[in-house]
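Lab notebook, bench 4. The sequencing result for the construct came back, and we need a structural model before the next group meeting so we can plan mutations. Quick request posted to the team channel:

Model the 3D structure of this chain.
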Amino acid sequence: MSLHSYGQLKDREIEEAARKRRSLVILTPLVDIVFILLIFFMLASSFSDHRVIGFLTPAGAKQAIGSEQPSAVLVRVDADGSLDMSGQPMSAVRIAQEVARRSLSDDTLGYLVQPNRGVSVQQVIDVVDLLKSSGARNVSLTSRSGS
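Done. Here's the predicted structure in token form:
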């Protein structure tokens, strides 16, 4: 066996050993890291929703108005997007101004949002959000009488 063939034999053994090492993949450290990341993100995340709009359901609104609030302002929402406050048709801007004006003098005043038939939930949420952002503190939903 010559020196040259000895070197080739040694090179082949090295390549074969490297190939065996490459084909052997240990997944335990990878799984450990994934679990550690999972636990970290579970502990670091917050599940509370800070954009929640609080309001009373129709059943709760009757109790609140009867016990705490001497009067309430009715805001009707139609399917076409038109609004009226206490029976007077108004734009969203005008309602916001009126709520802001009334909230300065009486912040306990309640507002009842009454959606008519065909009104989407998004339209109702938009009106509730409009009232809340204009200064209304007590906003409730009510249903149409007789339905």
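The chain has two domains: 3-44, 58-141.
Will bring this to the meeting.
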